Amino acid sequence: MVGPLKPTPQASFLKRTTVIPLLLIALLCSLSYSLGLWQNRRAAADAGGGGGTTNLQCTHYTPTQINTTALDFSSHHSAAAVTDFVRTYPPCAAKYMEYTPCEDARRSLKFKRDRLIYRERHCPGKGDLLKCRVPAPHGYRTPLKWPASRDLVWYANVPHKELTVEKAEQNWIRYEGDRFRFPGGGTMFPNGADAYIDDIGKLINLADGSIRTAIDTGCGVASWGGYLLSRDILTVSFAPRDTHEAQVQFALERGVPALIGVLASKRLPYPSRAFDMAHCSRCLIPWDQYDGVYLMEVDRVLRPGGYWILSGPPIRWKKHWKGWQRTREDLNGEQTAIENVAKSLCWKKLVEQGDIAIWQKPTNHLECKAHRKITRNPPFCPAQDPDKAWYTNIETCLTPLPEVSDNQEIAGGKLAKWPQRLNSIPPRISRGTVEGVTDEIFQQDSQLWKRRVSYYRTVNNQLGQAGRYRNLLDMNAYLGGFAAALVKDPVWVMNVVPAEAKINTLGAIYERGLIGTYQNWCEAMSTYPRTYDLIHSDSVFMLYNNRCKMEDILLEMDRILRPEGSVIIRDDVDILVKEEDHKWVELGQSDC
């Protein structure tokens, strides 16, 4: 057996003389590394955080850009800078707990009362913007879950008893201890909205899916829209902020879609051909005045073949004239004027039965144009964008429908019935009238949002809890994919297409059977504080970069978000951290 070799004296000397320089080199390397590490930590501390970041390339999906590659939802991109300090915003004074910046009662007094112009949107200037957080009322409680919220609302959340007195005989609302109860009544349906809707359903078909979107003008507490939801009909209810204190606020607290709005001098903030049905139940809109301009605006937003339903004065005036405290001559003159305006719009009166009258808009304008050769009152509107409806003046003219080749064709294209309508290609897209959006892009966008919403449920488990959320807002909806992916949940989504968006897609959203509105996010939304349970913001800050301050958009989001509500932001990280040299808000990582 051979044992280990014993080292010679020469070998030992060579080993020592080789190791010493190596030790010196290792020591110098260690010192160099330590010095570099110390400098790096000092630089990170000077930047206000704890460590550097690496900028990695990632695919960012904007509302107008679709990538069909496999999605990776994990965070790859972190903020390139961190904050020096966090700016905080104090609560506003208690008097602002129901503050609606663009419908402020005191500011409105500076504007004309004629045609209710003073009740339109009049937003504060930059110097008058509040830099504080709108508080909730004392005793605020989480709203009841849908569908219980349709009938019950906590008194502390909307502490106004005026309507319980003013509308006591009309069964609108009752005060019961710590809550309000909504029996479903209305001025013209004291027996309840359900029975009233059943009466309408005997006159037109509400059950076959051909009627999906509706608009309720002068909605009260939105019981009509609230009870249509059980029939899969989605209604936008609107009313001004007026002496009927908090009527729209009650609607929203109940979990019913609603906005503050008024028919005055500006177009309603919806595209043309948006609604299958329009409704007025004693809404106090002077349809016969101003050359019938308000009915012309209803005609613009009503779909070809859509219905206009009117109940209340002057319908059935021969029975009700004494109770309405008006003369027979006055009421007869009003109804005659309304009938004449409807006829001039080429509408057909389908029926007048009991307290309800229904007209139908033609499916195209072939015959109407032939009639215009005889009478030009009102004329067709000159060349214009009928979908342009953000601070756009109402015109006394008839909005022309898209051209057709024969009288059987539906102008703008035939819509599928609900629920097939949701995923069918919207006619505006299939006909190529939405710039840059093809059938393929629409389908890809739908699949993309199904995957994205599925991912959202993993990072926000409350989104998957039935009843946790009810009122949702998509601040930059594009084609409505976010809302479409949630359609089976007990929620509704207000889809906003910003007025500054390069492509106006709101008409296509309505053709899917969804609802929405136009909005400039440099201004406040026409809604009350604490409207939404969840706000979804996709590329909003990128769109408004250099248009207005990010802090004002975030304060508006805070105003309209309910306590314990959630916000999902998808945006360009560099835009988010750039604002005011990264010093006003602390941001974490952002998903690509």
From TrEMBL:
Taxon lineage: Eukaryota, Viridiplantae, Streptophyta, Embryophyta, Tracheophyta
UniProt entry keywords in alphabetical sequence: Glycoprotein, Membrane, Methyltransferase, Signal-anchor, Transferase, Transmembrane, Transmembrane helix
Superkingdom of the source species: Eukaryota
GO BP terms: methylation
Principal location listed in the UniProt entry: endoplasmic reticulum
Protein's recorded name: Methyltransferase
Compartment(s): Endoplasmic reticulum membrane; Membrane
Entry annotated with the keyword Transmembrane helix: yes
